Automatic annotation (TrEMBL):
<dbReference type="InterPro" id="IPR012910">
    <property type="entry name" value="Plug_dom"/>
</dbReference>
<keyword id="KW-0675">Receptor</keyword>
<protein>
    <submittedName>
        <fullName>TonB-dependent receptor</fullName>
    </submittedName>
</protein>
<feature type="signal peptide">
    <location>
        <begin position="1"/>
        <end position="22"/>
    </location>
</feature>
<keyword id="KW-1134">Transmembrane beta strand</keyword>
<dbReference type="InterPro" id="IPR000531">
    <property type="entry name" value="Beta-barrel_TonB"/>
</dbReference>
<keyword id="KW-0732">Signal</keyword>
<feature type="domain" description="TonB-dependent receptor plug">
    <location>
        <begin position="57"/>
        <end position="170"/>
    </location>
</feature>
<keyword id="KW-0472">Membrane</keyword>
<dbReference type="Pfam" id="PF00593">
    <property type="entry name" value="TonB_dep_Rec_b-barrel"/>
</dbReference>
<feature type="domain" description="TonB-dependent receptor-like beta-barrel">
    <location>
        <begin position="432"/>
        <end position="949"/>
    </location>
</feature>
<dbReference type="Pfam" id="PF07715">
    <property type="entry name" value="Plug"/>
</dbReference>
<keyword id="KW-0998">Cell outer membrane</keyword>
<dbReference type="InterPro" id="IPR039426">
    <property type="entry name" value="TonB-dep_rcpt-like"/>
</dbReference>
<keyword id="KW-0812">Transmembrane</keyword>
<comment type="similarity">
    <text>Belongs to the TonB-dependent receptor family.</text>
</comment>
<keyword id="KW-0798">TonB box</keyword>
Length: 986
């Protein structure tokens, strides 16, 4: 805490010149394009639709200008913005790479105050952008980045001004609309480990014609980032990184009062259900492993924290004595798969942008813009495809002779087996996103009833096309058929006759035996899982603002407008994800019908993409007023700001958002107070409304209405969803350039956001149990819209796990910002500019709404995205010739889980709501970045940047499994990065 306060007192703005205080930036509004020619000295503010020099918005807004974007020297400016402390939980190239089916790999999208990317509205020049994912969030990688002159981050609820999704706030990218000249940026980079090689080339051209009435701006960008690939098996992290230790929370099984903790935090976890090339995991042969040469050997089990070695019990349950539930500590770790996940996705990014504007009159501009962009990424979710619990027949001809002999000696005909499948090629996920966005509009100023009115009207059409292809992945049933071999007519063949008739080629999973091409083609056909998604967005908008009346304390300001929007999508998945093949059509040869596969689909090891689609449209109107109430030397200057928005959704009907707030420039030198409260909404997105039903067969489902039954678990969208409703309140104090410290700006804002009707899903068991006990309405006996359990033979039984509006969220905290600038400090040439931003998360609570559960507060949970404190500090010394910047990124120590109870002995009862643990401390991190530039000529500048100067390793983020155990949302998982570049501006 003292460290934070020290940096807040001594850090400030980075850049060649300090921008205006973030609460009153001199620039275009965050949600309305600027007029063609603003009046001299005119101030327009973010956080509101009002555009008046006499107006100060009550909603806190942070700004990142072009100088800071350049100083941070990132190939994707998303990274620079995501470093702001108020942005908690954003995605990016290092996040979500252990997933196969999410479709978000490499997707760069913002989240404010830990409320999720779907509750942060991201705009380009105040206009919506078509989603790059069916959740509706855009990909910042597809924005025209070289022309961005600043980014405004509105950290309060803003639905009344901007519409749906602004529950957490708004991030608006403002571009240079009338740029003239030629500018370029050429950058290269590499990590200290010799990977993540990067090259970026960006060029923009602008020129005015016809005596300045015609403005043409074009830009093009290409960025390649090699990424940081996966490690392999065991604990070898990629390229010599040495920090991976398979850290895990070991489950001791101790839950009764008076004993030790249930969880023990430890390193070098060993999953004893498999090994690299094979392990018998239960029965009399338990502990027999297979080496790379195909010969059996005795597996080396780890043990427990006391150093006692694990001993296989050789029972049917596969128990290992002296170990923990599912894991030992230490031993043979060669089969571990956790580090085999890509640390940063590789990226290839292309972007073109053009804007043509024509001044019909000096105050009216007609313009069109076109943004065409593409990004391709690749990740590896894990190596091979680990399998456990396989039942292998002793008579299988691939089983080593010594194992067959042991089977006979022990009177068994089969055994349980697991392996990492290191013999298989590694799975890769390959998403490609393309964006086509076109805008035509008219913006300007006109006189009506003796006053000037600004107007902005535009039509936007956007298309997003996403293709996801998964390579080197198995079809579950084909794999299971291939490993069950027998000898027929002197040849080793698949045991299942139906499988043989449909092309089955046997697979030897005993040792390091490379599968034949025919075997791989059978279990991993070249045409793997794919998903093709096309989304469109159409927006028609008209906004007008002005000052129709002069009141006792200043002009009454008004902004009003209407907007119509249509969102549409269609997704097509492959025939094996949706069924057992294609009987006809173009895909029949690639995905032939196979009777051994599941007719309902979901046949792949992972990445089962379903087909579907849907659309909705929105019509809304808003009114915002600013009423000046005080303007005097004795009392200062104050205004009230209010707004209302009425929205009609084609799916859920009419809803509304509102806000009321104000600012008071007190008579005390430099002190301003501000506060605002609002009702905000987030409409359900296309995925939540219309997600195609995926289905999984679940045998022996526990049925509270009667005997266990077989069911089909269906996961689908819910067209009956209603908008989430948020109540957002902020209050703050601003110290702005007081006479006793004219270079100082300081603001402290408290925020509290409550969101009700949060959209979430129940599990099949919860759906049925809640219908049984009356928690869910509209449930009828054994058959209703949620489920049907009425068929004893299982045919026709289903449980529908649609999302519902039943959860709640709460976010509360402080946003702090301080800036200071010294001109010619200590008599030296140049300017020393300082800036610090900090966010203190007091609460970030999720209430699932499930009976018997408790709300979980993730504030300070460093395995998540909301540490108690997060800080960004920057110090820049700049002259006309050179600039040097030092940047610090810090977040506080935290815990693994806020519900855990720490104890060593005499522990209380460990429950599902409150587990006991021996250590619940997860260290924070402190990173130092350094950058500098030198002007070779007036138009050419060379620069460098070093991220993570001291190469701080990431902190382990252990869970109750042996996954990647890292948290890239907070920690740097790449290490030190070097970048060099040249900028030109003619």
């Amino acid at each position: 805490m003292n460290f934070t306060l020290a940096l807040l007192a001594g850090s400030s703005l980075v850049g060649l010149a300090a921008p205006a205080m973030a609460q009153e930036p001199v620039a275009a509004p965050a949600a309305a394009a600027a007029p063609a020619a603003p009046a001299e000295g005119e101030i327009v503010v973010t956080g509101s639709r009002i555009t008046s020099s006499s107006f100060a918005a009550p909603t806190p807004t942070q700004m990142v200008d072009a100088a800071q974007l350049q100083a941070n020297a990132q190939p994707n400016i998303f990274t620079t913005i995501a470093q702001l402390p108020s942005l908690l939980g954003s995605t990016g190239a290092t996040v979500g790479n252990n997933s196969t089916s999410s479709g978000t790999q490499g997707l760069s999208s913002f989240a404010l105050h830990g409320l999720g990317t779907i509750r942060t509205l991201t705009l380009l020049d105040g206009q919506r952008v078509v989603g790059a994912n069916v959740t509706g969030v855009p990909d910042i990688s597809l924005f025209p980045q070289i022309l961005v002159e600043r980014v405004d981050v509105v950290t309060g609820g803003a639905s009344a001004s901007y519409g749906s999704d602004a529950v957490g706030g708004v991030v608006n990218f403002v571009t240079q609309k009338h740029f003239e000249g030629v500018k370029g940026n050429f950058q290269t980079g590499i990590s200290t480990y010799g990977d993540n090689a990067q090259g970026t080339a960006q060029v923009a051209l602008g020129k005015a014609f016809m005596d300045g009435r015609l403005h043409v701006v074009v830009s093009g960008e290409y960025d390649y980032e090699e990424g940081v690939g996966a490690g392999g098996y065991g604990e070898a992290a990629p390229a010599g990184r040495d920090w991976y230790r398979t850290s895990t929370l070991f489950d001791t099984g101790s839950t009764a009062a008076g004993g030790g903790p249930q969880y023990i935090r430890g390193d070098h976890a060993q999953a004893y259900q498999y090994s690299k090339y094979g392990l018998i995991t239960a029965g009399p042969l338990q502990g027999t492993a297979i080496g790379a040469d195909g010969k059996p050997f005795t597996f080396v089990y780890g043990g427990n924290a006391n150093g006692v070695q694990g001993v296989p019990a050789k029972n049917a349950a596969g128990t290992v004595n002296n170990c923990y539930n599912g894991f030992c500590m230490g031993g043979d770790l060669s089969g571990n798969v956790g580090i085999g996940t890509t640390l940063q996705a590789s990226i290839k990014r292309w972007n073109t942008y053009s804007r043509v504007g024509f001044d019909i009159t000096p105050d009216t501009e007609l313009y069109v813009t076109a943004n065409v962009a593409k990004i391709s990424t690749q990740t590896q979710p894990n190596p091979g495809a680990a399998k456990s619990g396989l039942i292998i027949q002793c008579a299988n001809p691939f089983v080593p002779d010594l194992v067959q002999q042991a089977c006979a000696a022990n009177g068994i005909s089969q055994f349980q087996y697991g392996l990492s499948n290191a013999i298989l090629p590694n799975i890769t996920v390959n998403p490609t996103r393309q964006q086509y966005r076109f805008v035509g509009g008219l913006t300007g100023k006109a006189s009506l009833f003796g006053t000037d009115w600004r107007y902005d009207t535009y039509y936007e059409h956007g298309e997003s096309i996403t293709d996801i292809r998964v390579d080197n992945i198995t079809l579950n049933n084909r794999y299971n058929n291939a490993i069950q071999a027998t000898v027929l007519n002197g040849q080793i063949v698949c045991s299942n006759a139906t499988a043989r008739a449909n092309g089955c080629v046997p697979l030897n999973i005993f040792g390091n035996v490379a599968p034949s091409a025919a075997t791989l083609n059978y279990i991993e056909p070249g045409a793997g899982p794919f998903q093709h998604t096309r989304q469109t967005q159409d927006v028609a908008s008209f906004n007008v603002s002005g000052e129709p009346a002069q009141l006792w304390a200043g002009p009454l300001s008004v902004a009003t407008g209407v907007e119509w929007r249509r969102e549409w999508y269609k997704v097509t998945g492959d025939p094996y994800s949706n069924g057992n093949g294609a009987a006809n059509g173009d895909l029949a040869s690639l995905y032939p019908v196979d009777p051994t596969l599941n007719a309902a689909g979901n046949n792949w090891y992972a990445g089962n993409y379903r087909s579907g689609g849907g659309s909705y449209h929105v019509l809304e109107g808003f009114l915002e007023l600013n009423l000046p109430v005080i303007d005097s030397e004795a009392l200062g200057r104050a205004n009230l700001n209010g707004g209302i928005r009425v929205t009609d959704y084609s799916t859920s009907g009419t809803t509304y958002a509102w806000k009321i707030g104000g600012t008071w420039d007190t008579p005390i030198d430099g002190i301003k107070l501000r506060a605002v409260t609002s009702r905000d909404v987030r409409a359900p997105n296309l995925s939540e409304l219309f997600a195609a039903g995926s289905s999984v067969n679940t045998p022996n489902f526990n049925n509270p209405f009667g005997a266990p039954v077989n069911i089909l678990q269906i996961t689908s969208g819910n067209p009956a969803l209603k908008p989430e409703v948020g109540r957002n309140t902020t209050a703050g104090i601003v110290l702005s350039r007081p006479s006793w410290a004219p270079g100082l700006n300081l603001s402290v804002d408290w925020y509290k956001v409550k969101v009700s009707g949060v959209i979430a899903s129940l599990s099949p068991t919860q759906v049925v149990n809640f219908c049984f006990d009356g928690t869910l309405a509209n449930c009828k006996n054994l058959s209703n819209a949620y489920f049907d359990l009425s068929h004893a033979d299982g045919v026709g039984n289903f449980v529908n796990t649609q999302p519902f509006n039943f959860a709640k969220l709460l976010a509360e905290g402080l946003d702090i910002e301080a800036t200071y600038q010294f001109v010619n400090p200590l008599g030296l040439d140049g300017r020393l500019t300082l800036r610090a931003l900090a966010t203190h998360v007091i609460h970030n609570t999720q209430d699932s709404g499930i009976p018997g559960s408790i709300p979980i507060d993730s504030a300070g949970v460093n395995s998540g995205a909301t540490p108690n404190w997060k800080l960004l500090g920057m110090q820049t010394w700049a002259t006309d010739k050179w600039r040097f910047t030092l940047q610090e990124r810090w977040f506080s120590d935290g815990v693994y889980n806020s519900t855990y109870i720490v104890c060593q002995t005499n522990c209380p009862v460990s429950t599902s709501n409150n587990r006991t643990i021996d250590n619940n401390t997860m260290k924070g991190a402190f990173y130092v970045d350094v950058s500098g530039s030198y002007s070779i000529t007036k138009s050419i500048e060379a620069y460098f940047k070093v991220d993570n100067l001291f190469n701080r390793d990431p902190e382990p983020s252990p869970a109750t499994n042996t996954g990647i155990d890292l948290n890239p949302q907070l920690y740097d998982v790449l290490g030190r990065m070097f970048r060099l570049g040249v900028r030109v501006n003619f």
